[in-house]
Protein backbone atom coordinates (compact mmCIF):
# COMPACT_ATOMS: atom_id res chain seq x y z
CA UNK A 1 0.00 0.00 0.00
CA UNK A 2 2.84 2.42 0.85
CA UNK A 3 4.44 1.67 -2.52
CA UNK A 4 1.23 2.56 -4.40
CA UNK A 5 0.77 5.71 -2.30
CA UNK A 6 4.32 6.83 -3.07
CA UNK A 7 3.96 6.10 -6.78
CA UNK A 8 0.66 7.90 -7.28
CA UNK A 9 1.67 10.89 -5.17
CA UNK A 10 4.48 11.65 -7.65
CA UNK A 11 3.54 14.96 -9.29
CA UNK A 12 5.82 14.33 -12.28
CA UNK A 13 3.90 11.11 -12.97
CA UNK A 14 0.64 13.05 -12.99
CA UNK A 15 2.13 15.51 -15.50
CA UNK A 16 3.45 12.66 -17.67
CA UNK A 17 0.09 10.90 -17.47
CA UNK A 18 -1.71 14.10 -18.46
CA UNK A 19 0.66 14.50 -21.42
CA UNK A 20 -0.07 10.95 -22.56
CA UNK A 21 -3.83 11.48 -22.30
CA UNK A 22 -3.89 14.91 -24.00
CA UNK A 23 -1.69 13.82 -26.90
CA UNK A 24 -3.93 10.79 -27.40
CA UNK A 25 -6.42 13.22 -28.97
CA UNK A 26 -3.81 13.86 -31.67
CA UNK A 27 -3.33 10.17 -32.40
CA UNK A 28 -4.50 6.95 -30.71
CA UNK A 29 -1.76 5.56 -28.42
CA UNK A 30 0.09 2.40 -29.43
CA UNK A 31 1.96 -0.04 -27.19
CA UNK A 32 4.68 -0.21 -29.83
CA UNK A 33 5.63 3.36 -28.90
CA UNK A 34 7.06 2.06 -25.62
CA UNK A 35 10.72 1.11 -25.77
CA UNK A 36 10.52 -2.11 -23.80
CA UNK A 37 14.27 -2.63 -23.71
CA UNK A 38 14.62 0.72 -21.96
CA UNK A 39 11.88 -0.23 -19.49
CA UNK A 40 13.52 -3.60 -18.77
CA UNK A 41 16.93 -1.97 -18.40
CA UNK A 42 15.47 0.69 -16.13
CA UNK A 43 13.84 -1.82 -13.77
CA UNK A 44 17.03 -3.90 -13.60
CA UNK A 45 19.12 -0.82 -12.92
CA UNK A 46 16.81 0.52 -10.21
CA UNK A 47 16.77 -2.82 -8.42
CA UNK A 48 20.57 -3.06 -8.36
CA UNK A 49 20.87 0.57 -7.23
CA UNK A 50 18.50 -0.06 -4.31
CA UNK A 51 20.57 -3.11 -3.35
CA UNK A 52 23.72 -0.95 -3.22
CA UNK A 53 21.79 1.58 -1.15
CA UNK A 54 20.61 -1.19 1.19
CA UNK A 55 24.21 -2.35 1.60
CA UNK A 56 25.19 1.21 2.71
CA UNK A 57 28.00 1.63 0.20
CA UNK A 58 27.77 5.45 0.04
CA UNK A 59 27.31 5.76 3.80
CA UNK A 60 30.44 3.68 4.36
CA UNK A 61 32.62 5.89 2.19
CA UNK A 62 31.01 9.06 3.54
CA UNK A 63 31.89 8.04 7.10
CA UNK A 64 35.39 7.01 5.98
CA UNK A 65 36.14 10.25 4.15
CA UNK A 66 34.54 12.79 6.46
CA UNK A 67 36.52 11.50 9.45
CA UNK A 68 39.58 12.84 7.65
CA UNK A 69 38.19 16.33 7.01
CA UNK A 70 39.87 19.01 9.12
CA UNK A 71 38.54 22.11 7.35
CA UNK A 72 35.29 23.23 5.73
CA UNK A 73 36.96 23.13 2.33
CA UNK A 74 38.15 19.55 2.81
CA UNK A 75 34.70 18.44 3.96
CA UNK A 76 32.95 20.01 0.98
CA UNK A 77 35.50 18.60 -1.47
CA UNK A 78 35.14 15.08 -0.03
CA UNK A 79 31.34 15.18 -0.16
CA UNK A 80 31.36 16.68 -3.66
CA UNK A 81 33.82 14.02 -4.87
CA UNK A 82 31.73 11.27 -3.31
CA UNK A 83 28.62 12.71 -4.97
CA UNK A 84 30.40 12.97 -8.31
CA UNK A 85 31.72 9.40 -8.40
CA UNK A 86 28.83 7.84 -6.46
CA UNK A 87 26.28 9.19 -8.94
CA UNK A 88 28.05 7.39 -11.78
CA UNK A 89 26.75 4.09 -10.46
CA UNK A 90 23.95 4.89 -8.01
CA UNK A 91 22.25 7.71 -9.98
CA UNK A 92 22.16 11.36 -9.02
CA UNK A 93 18.84 10.89 -7.17
CA UNK A 94 20.04 8.15 -4.79
CA UNK A 95 23.31 10.00 -4.21
CA UNK A 96 21.50 13.18 -3.18
CA UNK A 97 19.03 11.25 -1.00
CA UNK A 98 21.99 9.70 0.82
CA UNK A 99 24.49 12.53 1.10
CA UNK A 100 22.30 15.51 2.00
CA UNK A 101 20.94 13.81 5.16
CA UNK A 102 24.49 12.68 6.02
CA UNK A 103 25.75 16.23 5.60
CA UNK A 104 23.01 17.37 7.95
CA UNK A 105 23.96 14.79 10.59
CA UNK A 106 27.67 15.60 10.65
CA UNK A 107 27.26 19.39 10.64
CA UNK A 108 24.38 19.89 13.10
CA UNK A 109 26.71 21.43 15.69
CA UNK A 110 28.76 23.45 13.20
CA UNK A 111 28.22 27.01 12.02
CA UNK A 112 28.17 26.20 8.30
CA UNK A 113 25.74 27.79 5.88
CA UNK A 114 24.21 24.63 4.34
CA UNK A 115 23.00 26.31 1.13
CA UNK A 116 26.26 26.16 -0.82
CA UNK A 117 27.35 22.64 0.23
CA UNK A 118 23.90 21.22 -0.67
CA UNK A 119 24.01 23.01 -4.04
CA UNK A 120 27.51 21.65 -4.70
CA UNK A 121 26.50 18.09 -3.74
CA UNK A 122 23.59 18.40 -6.19
CA UNK A 123 25.78 19.88 -8.91
CA UNK A 124 28.45 17.21 -8.45
CA UNK A 125 25.86 14.42 -8.54
CA UNK A 126 24.33 15.80 -11.74
CA UNK A 127 27.70 16.17 -13.46
CA UNK A 128 29.16 12.86 -12.30
CA UNK A 129 26.08 10.93 -13.39
CA UNK A 130 26.86 11.84 -17.01
CA UNK A 131 29.68 9.31 -17.20
CA UNK A 132 27.72 6.03 -17.18
CA UNK A 133 24.39 4.70 -18.46
CA UNK A 134 23.56 4.01 -14.80
CA UNK A 135 24.00 7.61 -13.68
CA UNK A 136 21.10 9.15 -15.56
CA UNK A 137 17.92 7.42 -16.68
CA UNK A 138 17.90 9.33 -19.96
CA UNK A 139 21.43 8.06 -20.69
CA UNK A 140 19.98 4.57 -20.45
CA UNK A 141 17.22 5.52 -22.85
CA UNK A 142 19.70 6.92 -25.39
CA UNK A 143 21.81 3.79 -25.16
CA UNK A 144 18.91 1.51 -26.05
CA UNK A 145 17.13 3.90 -28.44
CA UNK A 146 20.19 4.51 -30.63
CA UNK A 147 21.71 1.02 -30.08
CA UNK A 148 25.01 2.45 -28.88
CA UNK A 149 27.89 0.14 -28.04
CA UNK A 150 30.15 0.59 -25.03
CA UNK A 151 32.84 2.36 -27.03
CA UNK A 152 30.47 4.88 -28.59
CA UNK A 153 28.95 5.75 -25.24
CA UNK A 154 32.19 6.35 -23.36
CA UNK A 155 33.71 8.32 -26.25
CA UNK A 156 30.85 10.77 -25.67
CA UNK A 157 30.85 10.74 -21.88
CA UNK A 158 34.55 10.65 -20.93
CA UNK A 159 35.77 14.09 -22.14
CA UNK A 160 32.86 16.03 -20.61
CA UNK A 161 33.18 14.06 -17.36
CA UNK A 162 36.85 15.02 -16.98
CA UNK A 163 35.98 18.66 -17.63
CA UNK A 164 33.08 18.49 -15.17
CA UNK A 165 35.28 17.15 -12.37
CA UNK A 166 37.75 19.98 -12.92
CA UNK A 167 34.82 22.38 -12.59
CA UNK A 168 33.61 20.76 -9.36
CA UNK A 169 37.14 20.84 -7.93
CA UNK A 170 37.46 24.52 -8.88
CA UNK A 171 34.19 25.44 -7.17
CA UNK A 172 35.28 23.77 -3.92
CA UNK A 173 38.32 26.07 -3.84
CA UNK A 174 35.97 28.99 -3.07
CA UNK A 175 35.10 27.51 0.33
CA UNK A 176 37.06 28.80 3.32
CA UNK A 177 39.56 26.64 5.19
CA UNK A 178 37.88 27.08 8.55
CA UNK A 179 38.92 24.40 11.02
CA UNK A 180 36.12 22.09 12.07
CA UNK A 181 35.47 19.22 14.47
CA UNK A 182 32.90 17.00 12.85
CA UNK A 183 30.16 15.02 14.49
CA UNK A 184 31.32 11.48 13.75
CA UNK A 185 29.02 9.29 11.72
CA UNK A 186 28.24 5.80 13.04
CA UNK A 187 30.65 3.19 11.72
CA UNK A 188 29.24 1.23 8.78
CA UNK A 189 30.29 -2.35 8.09
CA UNK A 190 30.13 -3.60 4.52
CA UNK A 191 28.74 -7.04 3.78
CA UNK A 192 31.53 -8.17 1.47
CA UNK A 193 29.90 -11.43 0.24
CA UNK A 194 26.67 -9.60 -0.67
CA UNK A 195 28.60 -6.71 -2.16
CA UNK A 196 30.70 -9.07 -4.30
CA UNK A 197 27.59 -10.86 -5.54
CA UNK A 198 25.95 -7.52 -6.32
CA UNK A 199 29.00 -6.40 -8.29
CA UNK A 200 28.83 -9.60 -10.35
CA UNK A 201 25.14 -9.04 -11.14
CA UNK A 202 25.93 -5.42 -12.00
CA UNK A 203 28.29 -6.71 -14.69
CA UNK A 204 25.50 -8.93 -16.02
CA UNK A 205 23.13 -5.94 -16.17
CA UNK A 206 25.82 -3.89 -17.86
CA UNK A 207 26.23 -6.62 -20.51
CA UNK A 208 22.49 -6.66 -21.05
CA UNK A 209 22.30 -2.89 -21.46
CA UNK A 210 25.02 -3.01 -24.10
CA UNK A 211 23.23 -5.91 -25.86
CA UNK A 212 26.03 -8.41 -25.23
CA UNK A 213 23.46 -10.72 -23.63
CA UNK A 214 19.62 -10.59 -23.72
CA UNK A 215 18.27 -7.86 -21.46
CA UNK A 216 15.67 -10.19 -19.96
CA UNK A 217 18.47 -12.32 -18.51
CA UNK A 218 19.84 -9.25 -16.71
CA UNK A 219 16.41 -8.55 -15.22
CA UNK A 220 16.12 -12.15 -14.05
CA UNK A 221 19.57 -11.91 -12.43
CA UNK A 222 18.59 -8.69 -10.64
CA UNK A 223 15.33 -10.21 -9.37
CA UNK A 224 17.05 -13.38 -8.14
CA UNK A 225 19.66 -11.29 -6.33
CA UNK A 226 17.15 -9.05 -4.57
CA UNK A 227 15.10 -12.09 -3.46
CA UNK A 228 18.29 -13.67 -2.10
CA UNK A 229 19.51 -10.56 -0.21
CA UNK A 230 16.19 -9.14 0.99
CA UNK A 231 12.91 -9.13 -0.98
CA UNK A 232 11.76 -6.05 0.98
CA UNK A 233 14.24 -3.99 -1.06
CA UNK A 234 11.70 -4.16 -3.90
CA UNK A 235 9.45 -1.86 -1.85
CA UNK A 236 12.08 0.89 -2.11
CA UNK A 237 12.29 0.83 -5.91
CA UNK A 238 10.86 4.01 -7.45
CA UNK A 239 8.31 2.46 -9.81
CA UNK A 240 6.94 5.90 -10.67
CA UNK A 241 10.01 6.46 -12.88
CA UNK A 242 9.05 3.43 -14.98
CA UNK A 243 5.49 4.73 -15.36
CA UNK A 244 6.77 8.22 -16.17
CA UNK A 245 8.92 6.81 -18.97
CA UNK A 246 6.00 4.80 -20.33
CA UNK A 247 3.76 7.89 -20.33
CA UNK A 248 6.38 9.98 -22.09
CA UNK A 249 6.94 7.22 -24.65
CA UNK A 250 3.21 7.24 -25.41
CA UNK A 251 3.02 11.05 -25.52
CA UNK A 252 5.98 11.37 -27.90
CA UNK A 253 4.68 8.51 -30.04
CA UNK A 254 1.32 10.28 -30.35
CA UNK A 255 3.02 13.54 -31.35
CA UNK A 256 5.23 11.68 -33.81
CA UNK A 257 2.16 10.68 -35.86
CA UNK A 258 1.10 14.27 -36.52
CA UNK A 259 2.78 15.48 -39.76
CA UNK A 260 2.46 19.20 -38.91
CA UNK A 261 4.12 18.84 -35.49
CA UNK A 262 6.80 16.54 -36.89
CA UNK A 263 7.61 19.02 -39.64
CA UNK A 264 7.87 21.90 -37.16
CA UNK A 265 10.06 20.04 -34.67
CA UNK A 266 12.31 18.59 -37.38
CA UNK A 267 12.85 22.10 -38.73
CA UNK A 268 14.07 23.30 -35.33
CA UNK A 269 16.66 20.51 -34.93
CA UNK A 270 17.86 19.88 -38.48
CA UNK A 271 21.55 20.32 -37.54
CA UNK A 272 23.86 19.59 -34.61
CA UNK A 273 23.80 23.12 -33.27
CA UNK A 274 20.01 23.32 -33.33
CA UNK A 275 19.71 19.91 -31.66
CA UNK A 276 22.22 20.83 -28.96
CA UNK A 277 20.62 24.19 -28.13
CA UNK A 278 17.10 22.77 -28.25
CA UNK A 279 18.14 20.02 -25.82
CA UNK A 280 19.54 22.51 -23.32
CA UNK A 281 16.72 25.05 -23.59
CA UNK A 282 13.87 22.51 -23.52
CA UNK A 283 15.41 20.83 -20.46
CA UNK A 284 15.09 24.10 -18.55
CA UNK A 285 11.30 23.88 -18.77
CA UNK A 286 10.33 20.19 -18.82
CA UNK A 287 13.54 18.59 -17.39
CA UNK A 288 16.12 16.57 -19.27
CA UNK A 289 14.42 13.14 -19.16
CA UNK A 290 11.30 13.99 -21.26
CA UNK A 291 13.46 16.29 -23.39
CA UNK A 292 15.70 13.35 -24.33
CA UNK A 293 12.74 11.16 -25.28
CA UNK A 294 11.15 13.97 -27.29
CA UNK A 295 14.18 15.16 -29.26
CA UNK A 296 15.52 11.65 -29.90
CA UNK A 297 12.40 10.95 -31.94
CA UNK A 298 13.18 13.78 -34.34
CA UNK A 299 16.97 13.95 -34.49
CA UNK A 300 19.82 11.51 -35.09
CA UNK A 301 22.56 13.80 -33.74
CA UNK A 302 23.27 11.52 -30.79
CA UNK A 303 26.25 13.40 -29.38
CA UNK A 304 24.40 16.72 -29.49
CA UNK A 305 21.39 15.23 -27.65
CA UNK A 306 23.63 13.50 -25.11
CA UNK A 307 25.60 16.63 -24.25
CA UNK A 308 22.63 18.97 -24.50
CA UNK A 309 20.35 17.03 -22.16
CA UNK A 310 23.08 16.19 -19.64
CA UNK A 311 24.49 19.71 -19.51
CA UNK A 312 20.90 20.96 -19.61
CA UNK A 313 20.38 19.37 -16.19
CA UNK A 314 21.99 22.54 -14.83
CA UNK A 315 20.15 25.86 -14.85
CA UNK A 316 16.61 25.91 -13.45
CA UNK A 317 15.50 23.85 -10.49
CA UNK A 318 13.24 21.82 -12.82
CA UNK A 319 15.97 21.11 -15.41
CA UNK A 320 16.72 17.85 -13.61
CA UNK A 321 14.49 15.92 -11.23
CA UNK A 322 17.56 15.63 -8.98
CA UNK A 323 17.53 19.43 -8.57
CA UNK A 324 13.96 19.32 -7.25
CA UNK A 325 14.83 16.43 -4.99
CA UNK A 326 17.77 18.33 -3.47
CA UNK A 327 15.59 21.41 -2.93
CA UNK A 328 13.05 19.27 -1.02
CA UNK A 329 15.86 17.73 1.03
CA UNK A 330 17.23 21.18 1.90
CA UNK A 331 13.83 22.44 3.05
CA UNK A 332 13.15 19.29 5.07
CA UNK A 333 16.47 19.07 6.93
CA UNK A 334 17.71 22.63 7.22
CA UNK A 335 14.43 24.57 7.47
CA UNK A 336 16.16 27.45 5.72
CA UNK A 337 14.82 30.17 3.48
CA UNK A 338 13.81 28.58 0.14
CA UNK A 339 14.22 31.95 -1.57
CA UNK A 340 17.88 32.27 -0.61
CA UNK A 341 18.55 28.69 -1.69
CA UNK A 342 16.89 29.16 -5.08
CA UNK A 343 18.70 32.46 -5.67
CA UNK A 344 22.11 30.94 -4.92
CA UNK A 345 21.23 27.79 -6.87
CA UNK A 346 20.26 29.84 -9.93
CA UNK A 347 23.42 31.98 -9.90
CA UNK A 348 25.78 29.00 -9.56
CA UNK A 349 23.92 26.70 -11.95
CA UNK A 350 23.38 29.23 -14.73
CA UNK A 351 27.01 30.38 -14.48
CA UNK A 352 28.27 26.82 -14.90
CA UNK A 353 25.62 26.10 -17.54
CA UNK A 354 27.09 28.88 -19.68
CA UNK A 355 30.71 27.78 -19.12
CA UNK A 356 30.18 24.04 -19.57
CA UNK A 357 27.60 24.71 -22.28
CA UNK A 358 30.21 26.50 -24.38
CA UNK A 359 32.68 23.66 -23.82
CA UNK A 360 30.02 21.10 -24.77
CA UNK A 361 29.28 23.04 -27.96
CA UNK A 362 32.96 22.77 -28.93
CA UNK A 363 33.07 19.05 -28.08
CA UNK A 364 30.28 18.26 -30.54
CA UNK A 365 32.55 19.09 -33.48
CA UNK A 366 35.86 18.03 -31.92
CA UNK A 367 34.76 14.49 -31.04
CA UNK A 368 33.13 12.59 -33.95
CA UNK A 369 30.29 10.18 -33.09
UniProtKB/TrEMBL annotation:
One of its GO terms (cellular component) is membrane. It is a multi-pass membrane protein. Keywords: Membrane, Transmembrane, Transmembrane helix, Transport. Residues 6-295 form the Citrate transporter-like domain. One of its GO terms (biological process) is transmembrane transport. The chain crosses the membrane at residues 12-31, 38-55, 75-103, 115-134, 154-175, 195-216, 236-255, 276-295, 301-327, 339-364. It is found in: Membrane. This is Anion Na(+) symporter.
Amino acid sequence: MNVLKRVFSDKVLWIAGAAAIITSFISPPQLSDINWKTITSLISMMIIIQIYDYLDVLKYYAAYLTRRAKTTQQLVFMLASLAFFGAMFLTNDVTILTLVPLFYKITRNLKINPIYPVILITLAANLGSIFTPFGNTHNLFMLTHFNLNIGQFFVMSTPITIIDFIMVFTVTRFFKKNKIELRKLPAVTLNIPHLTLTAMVTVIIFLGIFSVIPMWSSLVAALLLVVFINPKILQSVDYSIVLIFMCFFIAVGNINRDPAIVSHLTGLIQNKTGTYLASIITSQFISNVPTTILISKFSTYVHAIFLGTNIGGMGTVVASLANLLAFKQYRYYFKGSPGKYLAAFSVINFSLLIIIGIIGFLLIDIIPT
